[in-house]
Structure prediction request, 47 residues.
Amino acid sequence: MYCDYLVQILTARVYDVAQESPLETAPNLSKRLQNNLLLKREDMQSV
Prediction:
């Protein structure tokens, strides 16, 4: 079952139109939560 999902993900046509979006550090939240927090910037995708 896991392999079926992986194949579907890797062959999804979304990779033809979507761009890889960056991860950015969130220093204030990281400090507050005492953990390294990264934000995935999906708002930078072209529409």
About this structure: The radius of gyration is 15 Å.
